[in-house]
Structure formats: structure tokens, C-alpha cells
TrEMBL record:
Gene encoding the protein: pcnb3
Family note: Belongs to the tRNA nucleotidyltransferase/poly(A) polymerase family.
Top enzyme category: transferase
UniProt function note: Adds poly(A) tail to the 3' end of many RNAs, which usually targets these RNAs for decay. Plays a significant role in the global control of gene expression, through influencing the rate of transcript degradation, and in the general RNA quality control.
Region (Disordered): 392-426
Protein name according to UniProt: Poly(A) polymerase I
One Pfam family this sequence matches: PolyA_pol
GO molecular function, one term: RNA binding
């Protein structure tokens, strides 16, 4: 099939938004005689005037050929999808060889490494808006699936029969809700019907991929809309049933307030997301308050710290790990620490420690950042927050005249907040 092509005069893609290293990778592949295009989210974002988060490249070159071209810069990864990661410092440009997929099958995809043509490569992608190629040297957009029109009209349409496509890979159901939340697009009627028909299959999807999409959305600046959609379309009750029920209560509504707050942070600092343990804590903190109210305050007692830690663990178990046993331990451990530490900042007894040792804990800044979110939620806490912040700054400030070697540069992992806490929420 011949694709539709759109010339530079048909679109207003701002080439300055395209990463230089991605352009270099495409050029290098081209110069070696291969086809290479920008594809997927970056083309969609360029067309809708958003700054792309990442630049995926699709090529006719096989992984070994890519490796030979980029040598030590290139790491071949993945079992399910074999991909090349080309590294430029901390940045990674993902390069995938054109693949074909059995798009008519209803079976769950377990293996997806058959090489194909550029057209086949588009056909195995999820939605038409994600199926466009862009050739940065000629500025031509190549469209095999009607993605150009759908992007213009703001419609999410599946490439191929949505019933089959959702069954093959149920994570696509989460992805369609993600694009509605982020882009404000509407889904086509056949996608909406298929979503209703297939939603229970979401439990068959790979837990790590599912969780990655959910956590990525919590960093996107559109988590409020996303969670509302997950709930409205009956997906949240399948993946996090207890959280779903809690969100329906009056106290549960506070979670949505926290989501709005983190969305504000991320819209202001899109490149420096809050640590994921803080994001998870936003889902849990109101439930912990509720539990402490029900189990202690309402009965006329106040829990001691051990009981608070126990209650935090309980809330994490009920709302998250009970239904989602693959949840990373690092996140639940840190969330438990962050949650229980809130009761040190604002003890239920109202008393404050004279020389609190807990501020020396290496993860203390995470707990303090969450406290700042609480203060945004409830401004009467601002003064207390400021005093803890000052206390912490004084403790960490080096003594005058002391000689300190320059700090070693360390690469921040994607799970760490790279933004200074005071900058992140201003
Ligand atoms: P984001 O802006 O969140 O990165 P994206 O669409 O670029 O959104 P990626 O996960 O980066 O999402 O995937 C890149 C491209 O790979 C997509 O645009 C789409 O073409 C294809 N893709 C991703 N996930 C799937 C899937 N589950 N099924 C089919 N194609 C997919
Ligand atoms: Mg992407």
C-alpha cells in the first residue's frame, strides 16, 4: 500500500524541538544505506505542538548492524523486543528495527521479533496517532494508517480491530486512557466498545509494564484526569480494587487533591519528576489518616510510632500489594518511611522533639518533600513545614571554614527526583 505523504508546507513541525542526537542517529543510519525515521510519540507530539519526551527511531537496520555503526555507544537490550539503545551521556535514544506482528490474532503477544517492512512496522503499533513516520531530512510525514487526520481531529483510533488489539496486549487499554488524559483526545466508538468488552483482560497484562504506564502517568502532569478515567472505565477496580473503593469515599477524594498538586509540580518542572515513592505516598496518605482515625482517635487513644509504622504497612498491603504483588519493594519501603515520618513532623500529641535525630535519615528529604505537598494541601501546615525545612538546612549546611572535597558527580536514576526539593514545589 502506498502511504499518504505530507510535505513541509503541509505541517508546521518545529525542527528545533527535535533532539540533535536523534538527528545524528538517523543521519548515521541513512548514510550507511538504511531507512530510518522518527516514529511514534515524538511525531505525534511534534504535530500537536508539544515538546516530545523521547525520540524513538525506527529503521530497516538489524540490531547487529546498528551495533556495528554505533559500537560502544550502542547497547542491545530486551528479550521480548530486541532494541538498540544509543547512549549520549545520560540520554538514551531508542532504535528499533522494523518489525511485523500478527495484528489479526486475538492471542496475547509473547514474542515480537519478526523483522518486517516499514508498513508492517506501523501496522503493529497501537493507535493511528502513534503510527506516523517523520523523515527529518526531507521534513516529510509518512502516513499508512490515517494518523495525520486523526491527530488533526483529536481522535484515538486503533490500528486494526480494537477488540483484537486490546486482547493481544491489554496494556493498550491503559495507553488509550493515558492519551485521552494527556492530549484531551476522544476515542472512536469502536475503541470505546472494545474497551468495555475487554477491560477484564487487563489483569492478564504484564504487571511491570502496567505499573510503568501508571507511574509514568503520575509523573506526566495529568494524573488527576488519568485516575478519574481509570476509575470511570472500570479499570482501576480491576488493578487496585481497594484503592478504587477508597477513592469513592469522602476521605478518598483527598487523593485526587494530592494528584492535582503533583500535576502542578510536574507541569511546572516536566523534566524533574518527583521521586516515585512520593507519588505512591499521595495515593496512600489519606487512607493512613483514615485508618488512624478509625483505629485510635475515634476510640479515644493515640497511636505510638510503632503503631503508626504498623498502620502504614497495613495500608500499603491493603491498597497496593494485596492486589498488585509485583509492586517494587523499594517503593513500598520508602512510602512506608515517608508516611510514618509525617507523624514525626506533626505528632498527634502536638509535642515536638527538641533534637530530632530522625532528620539524619538518608531518605529524610523525601519525607520532607511529601510534607511540603501536605502543606500545599493544607496551608495551616506551612509554618511547621518551614521550620522543619530550616532545621534540616541548618543541619546539612557545612560549618564555616571547614574544607570539603567537591562532591562526586552521580547519575540520578529515573526513580530519583533530580530537582532540589525547594525548587520542585514552588
Ligand atoms: P509517551 O509520550 O508516553 O512516551 P509513546 O506513544 O511515545 O508515549 P512509548 O511507550 O514511548 O509511548 O512507545 C513508543 C511507540 O511505540 C508508540 O508511539 C507506539 O507507536 C508504539 N507502542 C508502544 N506501546 C505499544 C503497545 N503496547 N502496542 C503497540 N504499539 C506500542
Ligand atoms: Mg515515547
Amino acid at each position: 500500500m502506498l502511504p499518504k505523504t505530507y510535505l513541509a508546507s503541509d505541517h508546521d513541525i518545529d525542527s528545533r524541538l527535535i533532539d540533535e542526537d536523534a538527528l545524528y542517529v538517523i543521519e548515521t543510519l541513512r548514510n550507511a544505506g538504511h531507512k530510518a525515521y522518527l516514529v511514534g510519540g515524538s511525531v505525534r507530539d511534534l504535530l500537536t505542538k508539544k515538546t516530545p519526551k523521547d525520540f524513538d527511531i525506527s529503521t530497516s537496520a538489524k540490531p547487529e548492524e546498528i551495533k556495528a555503526l554505533f559500537q560502544r555507544r550502542c547497547l542491545l537490550i530486551g528479550r521480548r523486543f530486541r532494541l538498540a539503545h544509543i547512549r549520549f551521556g545520560h540520554k538514551v535514544i531508542e532504535v528499533a528495527t522494523f518489525r511485523s506482528g500478527d495484528t489479526d490474532s486475538q492471542d496475547l503477544i509473547t514474542h515480537d521479533n519478526r523483522w518486517g517492512t516499514e508498513e508492517e512496522d506501523v501496522m503493529r503499533r497501537d493507535f493511528t496517532i502513534n503510527g506516523l513516520f517523520y523523515d527529518p531530512s526531507s521534513h516529510i510525514v509518512i502516513d499508512y494508517v490515517g494518523g495525520w487526520e486523526d491527530t488533526r481531529k483529536g481522535i484515538l483510533r486503533s490500528i486494526g480491530d480494537p477488540l483484537n488489539r486490546f486482547r493481544q496486549d491489554p496494556v493498550r487499554m491503559i495507553r488509550i486512557l493515558k492519551f485521552i488524559a494527556r492530549l484531551g483526545f476522544k476515542m472512536s466508538k469502536d475503541c470505546a466498545d472494545a474497551l468495555q468488552a475487554c477491560k477484564t483482560e487487563i489483569v492478564k497484562s504484564s504487571p511491570s509494564r502496567l505499573l510503568e504506564e501508571v507511574l509514568k502517568m503520575m509523573e506526566s502532569g495529568f494524573s488527576f484526569e488519568f485516575f478519574k478515567l481509570l476509575s470511570a472505565f472500570g479499570i482501576l477496580e480491576l488493578i487496585f480494587p481497594d484503592l478504587y473503593r477508597f477513592l469513592k469515599t469522602k476521605k478518598g477524594d483527598e487523593v485526587y487533591h494530592y494528584l492535582r498538586i503533583i500535576d502542578q509540580v510536574h507541569r511546572k518542572h516536566p523534566k524533574a519528576p518527583l521521586d516515585r515513592s512520593i507519588l505512591v505516598s499521595c495515593l496512600l496518605y489519606p487512607a493512613l489518616e483514615q485508618e488512624i482515625e478509625n483505629e485510635y482517635i475515634a476510640k479515644g487513644t493515640k497511636p505510638h510510632l510503632g503503631q503508626i509504622i504498623f498502620a502504614s504497612t497495613d495500608v500499603i498491603k491493603n491498597l497496593i500489594t494485596h492486589s498488585f504483588s509485583h509492586f517494587p519493594r523499594r517503593l513500598t519501603h520508602l512510602a512506608s518511611y515517608i508516611l510514618s515520618t509525617q507523624y514525626r513532623f506533626t505528632p498527634l500529641t502536638g509535642k515536638r522533639h527538641a533534637k530530632p535525630k530522625f532528620t539524619s535519615h538518608k531518605e529524610f528529604p523525601l519525607a520532607l518533600t511529601f510534607f511540603k505537598l501536605r502543606a500545599v494541601f493544607n496551608p495551616t501546615l506551612t509554618e511547621t513545614y518551614e521550620s522543619w525545612k530550616k532545621f534540616h538546612q541548618q543541619k546539612t549546611r557545612p560549618a564555616r571554614g571547614a574544607h570539603h572535597p567537591p562532591p562526586k558527580r552521580r547519575q540520578a536514576t529515573d526513580e530519583e527526583s533530580t530537582v532540589p526539593e525547594k525548587e520542585a514545589i514552588s
